[in-house]
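Intended use. Records like the one below are meant for learning the mapping from a protein sequence to its folded structure. Do not use them to infer anything beyond what is encoded.
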Amino acid sequence: MASKKKKAAKAGAGAIAAGKAATSNPYVQRLANDEELRENLQTAFESARKAYERMSNGKGPAKALFDDKKTQRELKEAASSLKDAADALRGSKAKKKRRRGGLFTLLLVGAIAALVLNEGLRKKVLDVLFGAEEEFEYSSTTTPSSAGAGTTVNA
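Structure written out for the chain above:
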């Protein structure tokens, strides 16, 4: 009987040690305290469950993955929620998107529109890129024949 009590005591001590280790774990602490993290995990679970149900409805998983837009949407939502949860667990903040690309694109579109609409600006840009346009007069090396100019052909 004493050995059963010792085993029970060891098991209890192990459970207490596991509980203490779990409560001191920063991931468990963040999961307990962060409402948004729990919502992301719950959303990911629900979306994955819905996608699994749609894939196991008898049509086959391949057809559900490639043809069913709802399944694709659910899987995308699950992946997005898991990514957000992982970012929250790591403690990384959402990166601020740089707007330089948008500003550059706006400037480029404006410059193209100005070149298209303004002929003077277009000529200046072409002169800068390819050099000034040379002016020349065309003179023919052949002379028109005078015999065929005034004669009409009767047919």
